[in-house]
């Protein structure tokens, strides 16, 4: 159950990040574009699902070393570009020339945002734990 | 003492005027700290209290027990050691390590989503996100 909740939360977070990136991409590069709302939301759901599935590259039987984590992060970025760029082209999210560079950059931006959100959640958890450790220490002292 | 059904969770509640009282400490020690495990160093066997263990780690299928400044080899497998320290301050913190929560000075987040725990002897170990929930539960967060 915990795992289902974790993956559901990840799905919603990634979906939100992709939506946010799309908003800024359209705002900056194509402010007059009109999106077919129903199919657009459906396609973003597919992108989100693919992004989640691609996280399988982080799977390891042993604990990942920091170097191993960075290596897999680079591999994951590459995998995301390889999967999402052709699909986005097929669905008309980008057409040619500089479009592909902008779209690829936004995929990387979305990935960076994901890690930042994740880091923020971890920082909040760490702060709660440290607070509790301090309180326990004070209790023991008194 | 109350005998309960198997469905209910077992618990020990100590109601006292002074948590520092000798008899309360005695109960705490009986529950966790005084339990010992064997550690081996240069063919000598040492009895180690769970409370003095910083962490237990498996490296290349060999198990080691780390205390404040010493390292001992252990015969137990990770799951055996985990079973041994059930109810104590030691908890599984990663795929290959069991850590003493009482020895954590502070934790800090990392970009990889894991946590780095800095221990009271200055050593740093990794706490996986998967197991951080157990640490939170133990600390009452």
Describe this structure in words.
The complex is a heterodimer of chains A (142) and B (141). With 142 residues, chain A is mostly helical. Chain A is 80% helix and 0% strand. Chain A has one domain (2-117). In chain A, helix 3 (66-90) runs antiparallel to helix 4 (98-141). Chain B has one domain (22-139): OB fold (Dihydrolipoamide Acetyltransferase, E2P). The longest helix of chain B has 12 residues, at 22-33. The two termini of chain B are 28 Å apart. Classes of the chains: A mainly alpha (142), B alpha+beta (141). The interface between A and B is medium-sized, with 20 and 26 residues.
CATH topology annotation of chain B: OB fold (Dihydrolipoamide Acetyltransferase, E2P)
User: Helical segment tally of chain B?
Assistant: 3
In CATH, what is the class of chain B?
Mainly Beta
Mean pLDDT of chain A: 87
Radius of gyration of chain B, in Å, reads: 16 Å
CATH superfamily of chain B, by name, is LytTr DNA-binding domain
- How many domain modules of chain B? 1
Relevant terms:
heterodimer; A: mainly alpha; 4 helices; B: 141 residues; alpha+beta; OB fold (Dihydrolipoamide Acetyltransferase, E2P); 5-stranded antiparallel beta sheet; 3-stranded antiparallel beta sheet; 3 helices; 21% helix
Q: How would you summarize this macromolecular structure in one to three sentences?
A:
Chain A is mostly helical.
Present the secondary structure layout.
The complex is a heterodimer of chains A (142) and B (141).
Chain A: H1 2-29, H2 37-53, H3 66-90, H4 98-141
Helix pairs in contact in A: 1-2, 1-4, 3-4
Chain B: H1 22-33, E1 36-41, E2 44-49, E3 55-59, E4 62-66, E5 71-74, H2 78-84, E6 90-94, E7 97-100, E8 104-109, E9 115-119, E10 124-127, H3 129-139
Antiparallel strand pairs in B: 1-2, 3-4, 3-7, 4-5, 6-7, 8-9, 9-10
């Amino acid at each position: 159950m915990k795992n289902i909740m974790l993956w559901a939360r990840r799905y919603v977070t990634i979906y939100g990040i992709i939506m946010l990136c799309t908003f800024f991409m359209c705002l900056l590069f194509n402010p007059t574009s009109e999106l077919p709302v129903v199919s657009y939301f459906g396609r973003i759901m597919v992108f989100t699902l693919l992004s989640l599935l691609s996280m399988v590259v982080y799977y390891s039987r042993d604990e990942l070393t920091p170097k191993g984590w960075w290596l897999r992060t680079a591999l994951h970025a590459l995998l995301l570009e390889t999967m999402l760029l052709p699909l986005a082209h097929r669905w008309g999210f980008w057409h040619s020339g500089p479009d592909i560079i902008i779209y690829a950059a936004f995929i990387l931006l979305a990935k960076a945002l994901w890690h930042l959100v994740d880091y923020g959640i971890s920082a909040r958890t760490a702060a709660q734990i440290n607070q509790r450790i301090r309180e326990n220490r004070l209790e023991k002292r008194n | 003492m109350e005998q309960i059904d198997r469905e209910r969770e077992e618990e020990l509640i100590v109601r006292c005027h002074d948590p520092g009282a000798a008899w309360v400490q005695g109960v705490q020690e009986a529950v966790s700290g005084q339990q010992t495990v064997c550690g081996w160093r240069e063919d000598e066997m040492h009895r180690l209290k769970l409370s003095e263990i910083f962490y237990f780690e498996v490296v290349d299928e060999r198990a080691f027990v780390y205390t404040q400044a010493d390292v001992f080899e252990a015969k137990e497998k990770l799951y055996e050691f985990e079973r041994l320290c059930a109810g104590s301050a030691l908890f599984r913190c990663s795929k290959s390590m069991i850590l003493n929560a009482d020895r954590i000075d502070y934790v800090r987040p990392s970009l990889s989503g894991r946590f780095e725990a800095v221990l009271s002897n200055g050593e740093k170990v990794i706490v996986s996100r998967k197991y951080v929930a157990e640490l939170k539960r133990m600390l009452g967060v």
